[in-house]
Amino acid sequence: MGVGSSMNRVDAWEKVTGQAKYTADLMPQNLYTAKVVHSTIGNGWVKSFDLEDALKVPGVIKIVTCFDVPDIQFPTPGHPWSVEKAHQDIKDRKLLNRRVRMYGDDIAAVIAEDEIAARRAADKIKVEYEEYPVILDPEASMKEGAPLLHEEKPGNVIAHTGFVLGDESFEEAVKEQGLTIIEKEYRTQPVQHCHIEVPVSYAYMEKGRIVIVTSTQIPHIVRRVVSQALGIPVGQIRVIKPYIGGGFGNKQDVLYEPLNAFLCTQTGGHGVRLELSREETLGCTRVRHAFTWKIKGAVREDGTLVARKYVAYSNQGAYASHAHAIAANAANIFKQLYRDEKVLESDSYTVYTNLMTGGAMRGYGIPQGDFVTECVADDLAHAVGMDPLAFRLKNCVKEGYIDPHLGIAFHSYGLKACIEKGKDYIRWEEKRKTYEKQSGPVRRGVGMAIFNYKTGVYPISLETSSCRMVLNQDGSMQLFMGATEIGQGADTVFTQMAAEVTGITEDRIHIETVQDTDTTPFDTGAYASRQTYVSGKAVKKTGELFKQRILEYAAFKLKLPKEDGPAAAAEDSGTSGKSTETTAWKMLNIKEDQVIDKASGEVLLSLAELAEEALYSLEKSVHITAETTSHCKENSFASGVCFAEVEVDMPLGRIRVLDIINVHDSGKLINPGLARAQVHGGMSMGMGYALSEELLVDGKTGRPLNANLLDYKIPTAMDTPGLHMDFVELDDPTGPFGNKALGEPPAIPVAPAIRNAVLHATGIPFDSLPLSPQKLVERFLKEGLIGGEKGAVKGGGTHV
Amino acid sequence: MGVGSSMNRVDAWEKVTGQAKYTADLMPQNLYTAKVVHSTIGNGWVKSFDLEDALKVPGVIKIVTCFDVPDIQFPTPGHPWSVEKAHQDIKDRKLLNRRVRMYGDDIAAVIAEDEIAARRAADKIKVEYEEYPVILDPEASMKEGAPLLHEEKPGNVIAHTGFVLGDESFEEAVKEQGLTIIEKEYRTQPVQHCHIEVPVSYAYMEKGRIVIVTSTQIPHIVRRVVSQALGIPVGQIRVIKPYIGGGFGNKQDVLYEPLNAFLCTQTGGHGVRLELSREETLGCTRVRHAFTWKIKGAVREDGTLVARKYVAYSNQGAYASHAHAIAANAANIFKQLYRDEKVLESDSYTVYTNLMTGGAMRGYGIPQGDFVTECVADDLAHAVGMDPLAFRLKNCVKEGYIDPHLGIAFHSYGLKACIEKGKDYIRWEEKRKTYEKQSGPVRRGVGMAIFNYKTGVYPISLETSSCRMVLNQDGSMQLFMGATEIGQGADTVFTQMAAEVTGITEDRIHIETVQDTDTTPFDTGAYASRQTYVSGKAVKKTGELFKQRILEYAAFKLKLPKEDGPAAAAEDSGTSGKSTETTAWKMLNIKEDQVIDKASGEVLLSLAELAEEALYSLEKSVHITAETTSHCKENSFASGVCFAEVEVDMPLGRIRVLDIINVHDSGKLINPGLARAQVHGGMSMGMGYALSEELLVDGKTGRPLNANLLDYKIPTAMDTPGLHMDFVELDDPTGPFGNKALGEPPAIPVAPAIRNAVLHATGIPFDSLPLSPQKLVERFLKEGLIGGEKGAVKGGGTHV
Questions:
Q1: A76, A301, A304, B131: which could form a disulfide with B44 (CB 3.0–4.6 Å)?
Q2: B12-132+199-275: CATH number
Q3: CA A420 to CA A102: how far, in whole Å?
Q4: Which one of 3.40.50.1240, 3.10.20.30, 3.30.365.10, 3.10.400.10 gives the CATH number of domain A287-458+634-782?
């Protein structure tokens, strides 16, 4: 089958039958259970604990408080470590914090024989606090006199960066005659990832080392951060990642593994489990950063985008986590998606507040930034009476675009083709016209949004990945990746890639799902839509070497004539890293598990025969393996578009998505079936972001108001229309198999496309997410589109 | 510390605190339990089962009988597979057998929700048999008309081999005048290994593959045999070996893993555990082969050994297992230990009987063969009135000896020095004289026995081993061996070896204890005293390559001047197998975790810095690892001696070992402390073999009579005197670190040394083991040394 086929997931059977083992399934018997004690204030200090009653609870083993943990601050984001101090992540939290910076901050932990004892004891702990006012908004947090959340960051500003692209300032540029200028403020809300499996881990000690089994996207980074947090060497820590039930970026943060590891050391190495509740997951882990954008845009009558200028405030919440990387990435989409003829001024602040901590979430700032660029695009087009699709085609970046700061280019450019395909599907022109003049309470519209997205993090950060292959006695292969399967299908596409490169068929490639920092190769993990591209290169490089070693053995076994290579080392050719003795292997190839003559295609030997001989030959026994690192120093833009058709029931404030399509330019698809599944999931996530999802907190205390899946609304199947998609499959020359990013993109353009469809339907340019009924009704009332007499509906109509 | 130091075991803390995880500790919850149903006849056929009552037992999941298993015969011994059909192991059993060949043969299995249900159901299964007479003795089994146990082996003889070393026959040779000729029959008994942890495993399915976690010495061989037994490819099977509680060769057989794997497939992949009881372990696994030896020896008056001739019958029991390899190895000791001036005639039969199956046990035939050579030596010396030590020095093989068939030599020869040391310790001459003329019922004597022992199985069979090393971010190392820690200290000595070769200190080397056929490199396992020698070579070879790769990176980081190597490939030098770009690394070395200038010793860089840079460098990121195979085509003899001083209480038939010493020539000791522990254990095992251990069966049915540790007597601490030992540490040029075999040797010479001391004390040359009170009293009565009137003790005396 190889690359390009829609083979079934390698883990399909496992997952459908429930045999797949997740962290909780692997827990041995007799683990202790830990429960974190969370602060019940949003800003202040822990002054003291009264543990007396708690310690009396039968089954309590130990209670550890913020007074007991190492005085070490550590970072949590899932970034490759930087050997340059200036680029290292911000170390701003301890295992447990005396300084409370959010409601639900981690201040103590109970270790008990079971869950019930742990919860009972946690409830009986009394805490005395010193309390400060709670600040939830970045601009308020930056004001003079606001309490500092972290002493080392004056004004609570983590970072402030910007750039100007153009030769003059925005103010200069807009002196031009005849420009239409808009000035707007957009807001995006904090949302949560809502992965099915909550953060869960268990830790135990083995030969003086700490072993942590955890649901994470980034086992090697967890290892490093636990080392930093506990102040012990990396080699003393082992992290094992079983199957995981989703992550979406939340598990690209090192959440509770360091605390779990520490608690294990506090029991003399007895195993301790730490599983968050859904409430803790929503209220105490990470969220997608809320942003405020103050933006001006100027457009000519002909639709030329002349200039934009904005200030963005990224609400970081209590701890730095991924910090300014999100705002910096969000800024990229402005320059990378549209060309301002004269100038683009960008200015971004990332600010501590007492909100939940912002972290990585699918799209990493781009869903927010794209919402704004795509609102602005429609609002500017609207302002000059231009078709928004035409506006985009006129102003969006063209083939040959290169990011002026990062140097990333489209090595394959499919954006326009995507727009064409999506336009045809949704019947854009026809519907734009049909819905032009509607009256009545229920109106329809079509909208669109485009995006592009870089693949992996190069050159901002390191991209490195390793792969290991081992030949089994039956000629099948064990495939080991440091890259992680987190539900997205990575194991399946790596299997296809390995088959493509080596000629061993997929059914005979056994990929290891469990990443174990002791045994599987190094890779930074699942994030940044990087794995098929970056880790795919490692598969390709390793596969080529592995195949060479197999063919070298085949040449030996087949007694092909030797031609002396540059460094003859007969016995070592299989595994020692020395050069091969002969180049005879180049006359051979592998096809469908058989060694063949490259020229004639004749089958010479089965891999099963070869493998058995290689292991057991009395003349030359060699265990054929290969392991290489691919250091990736390339990048390419993926891109795409979403078109949505909506029906807005204005009196009910209800938006029905009637039809929706994403069209993606992600290069060659490794597995079209999995690509479709990836897009499905992303579109559904985008719809939740657009319509219903928002983490709400009490304004006085910062206490989460809807940290549960009853009150926090993610879309259900009933809320979701048929999700359509298409692809523009260009062969990207930098991708290992012509491929580029697809993991995060599908979630990006959905919300602005829906917002723009609502604009088309109702004429109202909403400026914040989600487009909730409350928000819509208030605005429609204000605009006089509904209401008037006492709740009566202007225009009437039937609403189901 | 490195090689030669007595560092603490790397698993000492784990094992002392109980944190070390053995198979049973790792079992997840909700496994099913399987119980094997054993035959209650010793020879015959299963005609039918009545399962009705058994299936009614609540909790029974399934009952599988010998009518339900694949019609595939498979082998069980832990040998490297041979690609030559003639050398492949004998395939003579099925997962469950209709043809019953021993009492307790495996005829069915119950799978139930728990142990109790499984046992209850097993008890309720009714079996109808066709029954044949039971044959327990090889010579009886070879007689015409005896029922055939395996159709394909006429006369029940598995193999019959022999050799003649000399130019004339024994009969010709003994025509010489003045020879003293003895003719004797010696017997050794079946004994069991009595490892602490019984055979235990559990199996489950994962992605269509079978995973077996098991207490084994040979995970890769288990993988292959399960594949053969179930008729599925090797790649579909994964075997994981946690810590194991001893094996001593019993777990060098593939015991119940294939059945466990099969039962798992019969539940749709649900996990199934199979743990033997102690009774099953003693009665249904493997034993050390019982032998009968009929031997003649001829000696001149001056003590020259002129000729020997023997026929040996190895009692294989019901199934082939290691089969004739044991008898063939036992034959080796005759030629390898003494030189017969004229001729040695060797003739060995391995014969099926209805006894428990003979398998590998520490010494692999040599404890039996050495018992006979050393009895014969003393008996010949006794016959001509010569000091047995002098007899040995005169006739034993000398430096320069090369086995005429195998080509194995002493590359270091310490046998004579061992004898010297032991003789001095025991004060041989003084005591031989003192105890010369004793009377009374309690008499003392000193005896000795020598041995030699080849290291590993080359050239009889394949010796291959792989090793993998990975550099952690903190400059520490993960070390992976296919070789297995089975309690003997392998992990500790491999750690020392890796430290010695790489310059990374032992505290920063993290060896993986768990062998996993998916992740750890290939190695055939723990047996044949091979690991420090054969697998040690893999550590050395891999360590050298690993160090080179580290130093290559150091040269890059330190910007050492490049000298173009034969095949410049800058980026690949770390892991791709290409040749290095430069030879600058040769100017560097590693000492105590620091990169130093080789010439000056100046510290240039810590490995921690280097490792962090290597992983995270934006210029050159490389995950430094190394993995190589060492195909070992060398061997060397280890040797040694045991001296024992005993007191024989003849009326009680009781032997007290007053003093005992083993002196070993095992080359350089990697870890003297562990070497001592190894010798301790072996001496204790040898004492059990000498004095008390014997598996007894009912002569009519073959039913084990003492398959429990109450009636089967292994020595306790109370039975054991101070165990003394010494070493002759010659540097063996073929050993990776000057070392050679030590695992099995300590158990070999103890029994004959004690037997010879008893001969010295009493004048009675016992001809079988064990030297049990019953046997001694009968013989002393017969010889008139005790008894006479009605149980009265001749000579009297006080016995405590």
A1: B131
A2: 3.90.1170.50
A3: 47
A4: 3.30.365.10
Distance separating alpha carbons of residues A269 and A263, to the nearest angstrom: 9
Tens-place pLDDT, residues A522-566? 999 999 999 999 999 999 999 999 999 999 999 999 999 875 544
Q: Does the pTM of the predicted model rise above 0.90?
A: yes
Contact A80 B519 (CB under 8 A): no
Q: Are A687 and A754 within 8 A, CB to CB? A: yes
Q: Is the CB of residue B328 less than 8 Å from the CB of residue B349?
A: no
Query: Which of A480, A518, A628 comes nearest B575 by C-beta?
Result: A628
Nearest to A522 among B17, B516, B615 (CB): B615
Across the interface, of A29, A235, A520, the residue whose CB is closest to B476 is A235
Chain B residues within 8 A of A519 when measuring between CB atoms: 478, 480, 512, 516, 519-520
As annotated, the residues of chain B forming the CATH 3.90.1170.50 domain(s) are 12-132+199-275
Structure tokens at B757: 């001391």
- Alpha-carbon separation of residue B371 from A269, A748, B394, B769 (angstroms): 48, 80, 19, 9
pLDDT at A505: 98
In Å, what is the CA distance from A603 to each residue of A474, A552, A797, B240? 17, 16, 74, 35
Cα–Cα–Cα angle for A314, A320, A322, nearest 5°? 75
**In degrees rounded to 5, what are phi and psi of residue B503?**
85, 0
Q: Is there a contact between A693 and A191 (Cβ–Cβ < 8 Å)?
A: yes
Using the beta-carbon criterion (under 8 Å), do A621 and B462 form an inter-chain contact?
A: yes
In this complex, the residue of B26, B28, B81 whose CB is nearest that of residue A616 is B81
Calpha distance A786→A795 (Å, rounded): 7
pLDDT tops 90 at residue A577:
no
Q: What is the pLDDT of residues A594-615, one digit of tens each?
A: 999 999 999 999 999 999 999 9
**Burial group, residue B151, by CB count within 10 angstroms (0-12, 13-18, 19+):** exposed
**Residue A441 Cα distances to A438, A764, B45, B484, B509, angstroms:** 9, 13, 87, 76, 73
Alpha-carbon separation of residue A398 from A339, A371, A390 (angstroms): 9, 20, 14
> Which of A204, A207, A502 would best serve as a mutation to test chain B binding (most B beta carbons within 10 A)?
A207
Q: Sort out which chain A residues have CB atoms less than 8 A from B470's CB and list them.
A: 518
Which residues are CB-neighbours of A55 under 8 A, at least 6 positions away? A63, A121
Smallest CA–CA separation between A213 and chain B, in Å?
A: 14
Contact B617, A463 (CB under 8 A): no
pLDDT over 50 at A261, yes or no: yes
Query: Is the CA virtual torsion A514, A518, A522, A524 positive or negative?
Result: positive
Residue in B closest to A14 by C-alpha: B207
Asked if B412 and B740 touch (Cβ cutoff 8 Å), the reply is yes
Closest listed residue to residue A638, CA positions, set A336, A286, A209, A211: A336
Distance from CA of B77 to the nearest CA of A (A): 16
Could you tell me which chain B residue has the CA closest to the CA of A461?
Answer: B618
Q: Which residues of B touch A13 (CB under 8 A)?
A: 207-208
Q: Is the distance from CB of B677 to CB of B488 less than 8 angstroms?
A: no
Residues of chain A with CATH 3.30.365.10: 287-458+634-782, 464-631
Shortest distance between the Cα of B164 and any Cα of chain A, in A, equals 27
State how far residue B203 is from chain A, nearest Cα, in angstroms.
Answer: 13
B475 near B606, Cβ under 8 Å? yes
Please give the CATH architecture assigned to the domain spanning B464-631.
Answer: 2-Layer Sandwich (3.30)
User: What was the pLDDT predicted at B564?
Assistant: 52
Q: Which residues pair with A641 in a beta bridge?
A: A450, A663
Amino acid at A609: E
